[in-house]
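Why do we care about 3D structure at all? Because function follows from shape, and shape follows, mostly, from sequence. That is the central idea of this module. The next example makes it concrete: a single protein chain, its amino acid sequence, and then its structure expressed as tokens.
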Amino acid sequence: MNVLLVYYKGYITGSFLSSIDFLKTAHHLKIPTKLLCIRQEKKAIIQWDEYLLPPGSFIEVHDCVASIQEIIKELPRCNIIASSHRAIKLAKNLADTLNSKYSVIVRGGTINSQKELSDEDKYLLKGAKNIACVAMHLCEFLERSLNLKTVLLRHPPKCKDLVMPRRFDSTLKLLYIGQLVERKSPETLLEVLKYFKQKTSIEVSMTIIGQGPKRDRIIKEVSDVTKELSFFENLQPWEVDEIFARNNFLVSFSRNEGRPRVVLEAIAHGLIPILSSIPAHKEILGKHNSDLLFTDQEILPACKTISANFMSYLVFRDKVKTLQEKSVLDTMEEFCLGVGEFLRAN
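And the structure:
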């Protein structure tokens, strides 16, 4: 029995959605697996029915080590899988208690392939029985840093059929999806909006989906630049799909990512992403779309790229077509093979 540990913070995250995909794939492969969802807030409600999970495949518990240990002890001898960075230490502690093994899915974010690992991370990763990485740059980083062999587990876009963009009106529609925290650099949105307000006559609307400590400040400052602001906090995946359909460009100047689902979904839904030049984004876009990657000092070129691709629907459509053809968008079959390889090794 495999037990997948994931934390639920009161809002939907990429690691939570990826854990759902992993669980469904494991059951499709007929490999016994349960999802142990650890709620960090008592009032947080998860709409499990909406995810159509196999009966009995998930357990929900409040964030209490004693409660988690009791649940684990009642399961058949199991391999503990940490499905996020925060869960690695818990996975090791549970494995030690049960005289079992633990494995790790490295998603990036807090493990930065551009920086040295902490001593604690080295210790925890070296002690894992098996490691899967959601991106090739993470696989290469762990092999280079710790000489660890890993399984590549790149999830595909949820959108099954690639969508060509609808014809758009004269309003430029920008979208940001992500936590409003330092690592995500949400302040970059202000610089982009100020450029279009001060340097062009293009009308701009801004949609933000996210929450975090910078929430109030970002809302206030964005509202000062544009009155066309839509803000959402905790949407379900199908609600986000509707918002993708109403926007033209995704903007993300995050400083570190593993394999951001939001970029994959944006491309699949016919948006053009304007992204920070980090390994995760480079891996997704590939060499043919490097003109959409910018450092945090290149806001002006980024804005000019947005303008150039917004000149006409035909220009925009051609760029989307190139993105969808040349980006690295793995299939569900490839993801299924990765899940099978990882779980069978346990």
